[in-house]
Amino acid sequence: MDFLTALDILLALSLIYLVFALVVTSLNESIAAALSSRARWLRRGIASLLSADPKKLDEAAADRVLDSPFVSFLGTPGCFKTFRPSYIPAWTLMQGVLSTVEGCRDDAFARVADIRALAEKLPARSPIRSVLIDLCARAGDDLDAFRGQLDAWFKAFEEQLTAWYRQKTQYVLLGLSLAVAVAMNVDTLDIVRQFSAEPKVLKAVVDQAGDAAKLDGVDAYLDSRARDEARKALDEAITAVEHADAAGRARALETAQEKRAALTKAQDELDQRVARLTDTLMAGGLRLGWKPGEFRQWATSPAKVESWNKLFGLLISAFALALGAPFWFNVLKSVASVRSVGPRQQDQPGTATTPGA
To answer: Domain residues of the chain, as ranges?
Structure first.
């Protein structure tokens, strides 16, 4: 195998890993949406802020905050409260927390002194109580200064919450990558053997990879603009609800629900495009998936060398998919750039390769 042939195989593998990494991402987002994973981590974060014991989470107090009228409008009704908000602005969170304090009034957030008076009634030794009292002390009577400091603190809190969520998501992605690799029989060793035995299959995938490498990024390859715009529209609608007065809140809530439905539809269409990418990948003759009875034969013959090779090939693919679509798109562009320096000798008109060369 010459160097340029090896580059072609690496380029083709990069496209295959890219497509199936997108499948993994699509599955992960669907599962996360169904289970409201981000919302659950936000709930845990709020529970940690309200707990007087650093080793425990006050989830009952977090539920009271999320059910308060200042916060509940950000979510949607659902079974077992699975559609709670995934993101809450700092000011809205503070309002939700302090609204659970006895004696809170709707106009209690117009002065720093009133905010401090409510904060002092929060559970002793709870992190949110200490934070709010400290911010009130540093802001004095300046409500704008207090809000600015609150936003800065909340940004750091949200970044840590996102870090927790991403760390947990990595384990989920690895599990999904293994599931996709096994379900679709994405065996790296078998794919390489196909490319070596059938140059036409390799060329078909390389041509697709070359077209993909001309694009600017993963978003352009998948064309996720509609989904991204729908997500942005929903964020803007939620912000509009937050700032709406009593007369306009009902209409703002209705608009937010419409934007949420539009986002769900855009995500479904994106998932369909991911499925079409896998079909296109195999249109050139690439064989993926299990033949009838093949999976059972592999699973029931663990002692055979072929079974160990199959397991090794699937594990390589699983770890590759877990690296993510952006990683493999960058690899694809890099390899395509190196490959474009010159055509392979066997691709030049009038040249022939010697068998076995």
So the answer is: 1-35+184-357, 36-168
